[in-house]
Hints:
Elements: H1 3-21, E1 45-50, E2 53-54, E3 58-59, H2 66-76, E4 80-84, H3 94-103, E5 108-111, H4 117-126, E6 130-134, H5 140-152, E7 156-161, H6 164-170, E8 177-181, H7 192-199, E9 207-211, H8 217-225, E10 230-233, H9 235-238, H10 243-253
Parallel strand pairs: 1-4, 1-10, 4-5, 5-6, 6-7, 7-8, 8-9, 9-10
Antiparallel strand pairs: 2-3
Helix pairs in contact: 2-3, 2-10, 4-5, 8-10
Amino acid sequence: MNILDKIVARRKERLAVKKKAVPVESLDRKEKTIRPFYREKDSVTVIAECKKGSPSRGIFLQDYDPLRIAREYEKGGAHALSVLTEPDFFYGADSHLEMVRAHVSLPVLRKDFIFDMYQVKESWAMGADAILLIAAVLPDAQLKELGGFAKELGLEILLEVHNKRELERAFNVPVSGIGINARNLKDFSIDLQGAKDLCRLLPPGRIAVAESGMKSPEAAVDMYEAGFRAFLVGEYFVTAANREECVREFCSALPR
């Protein structure tokens, strides 16, 4: 099993337990407002990620405080947030998203490995404004089913792809944002040029979201020139000595 298969297998085990403990009928959303995730057409969206660690790099911060980090991102000018909730490989928790959503004014993406209708409803209930769907995890029928249910609940979707085949499949799913992840989820290698090549294949009307591998404002500008209009940044921001200033410099390098 590659790392992606291991993550999904473990997520399925946890979900089976969760469904028994918390029936789907009991899931409800306290905060009824859903914040628009992507900025208006032609505006850049910088999505800053609250992330304690990763399978490839281990733990970034021993004293990880997602709320403090989210507030620093907000002060730095980020337009949206991504919060990891996967616990076993990325050290996340549902409570991290709930805490951030309750105390920060920016829209929040639930970053997890979603493959079940229950998880979509759960994301809505915990206060997410958007969810991540990963093409590598989901067959076409399931992508459409989960995406359609998310839309019914009012949630925005970030549909993540890693190669041309997945990108072509994404064209058939009615989502605004298509995330092109420069990181290979099977071996965690980075290929920014490959991501730029895929971006040029996107049809008009879709927002190209750059994911992974950007470690400077200059890298962001390079991706912008390739056609990306949204940028999801995790490790570079979260490990910065001054996160607020790091986000501010990154945002300032991009067109308003």
